[in-house]
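Predict structure. Input: Methionyl-tRNA formyltransferase, 323 residues.
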Amino acid sequence: MKIAFAGTPEFAAVALQRLLEAGHEVPLVLTQPDRPAGRGMKLQASAVKLLALDHGLQVAQPRSLRLDGKYPDDAQAAQWLLRDAGLDAMVVAAYGLILPQWVLDTPAKGCLNIHASLLPRWRGAAPIHRAIEAGDTQTGVTIMQMDAGLDTGDMLLMETLPIAADDNTARLHDKLAALGGRLIVDALARLDQLRRTPQPAEGVTYAHKIEKHEALIDWTLPAEVLARRVRAFDPFPGALTHQGQENLKIWAAFAEPGASDAPPGTVLEASAQGVRVATGQGVLRLTELQRAGGKRLPATAFLQGADLHPGQRLGATGPDHVS
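Output follows.
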């Protein structure tokens, strides 16, 4: 089948690789423009662009696809490329741009989206993070026939995946990316036979984009809630607290039963087994930490170079910004 592919991060690159391995012809790949990243803020190509170039595929990076938007020349150029490609279908995965109606209408069989949730739960930008943060016990991938709404199209295929108690966003991402790649190949192979099922009106939730300010730990919350947020915010933006005037990232933690009379944020114990901190309900044991400018370290190694001791308050003072 001749398909265009639109995607940007590693999640999408996994799907593109599977499509190529399945023998699909991909005359055009759309991906986000190169962005500055890293400490040097050098322009970096997306995972999808790197893979596409490695396979000798044509790549376009329009800043917008709206013909009446801020970058009409970019949109017009993309329109010519898509129309000239003679597409059977278009596959979209974590692209990052809204597809206007003219894009949806261009391929003969429309546009299919690989979405990392069990729709209609967690429509939107960050379904993996929000599922972990909310304490969901399962998630999955939905292959959807796209329409003009935000993840509102008819469902073609869906498969569930359990969320393990220790899954963070990075690990769950990799599982869902593999599942998405397999499902889209299956969907294209059976596209004319698949039944289109409208999404139910009940159970709709929105996975809003993760913002940096959400990283700051509120120690008055229950330990269970904080443990989920630590896992949800790994690898981005990383859960953050303050140790005196320094920022301190928390990369791994789990809730312990029992209560403490100490004020929330108080260090109760600092040992090789982790740093136990009082919360609004229960105790959170921190097992992987990172000082500003340092490396992610297990608690044993972290405590060798950190002055963290019982009675100290985390989050009480610190810089006004989140880095």
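Helices lie at 10-21, 47-54, 72-84, 101-105, 127-134, 169-189, 223-232, 299-304.
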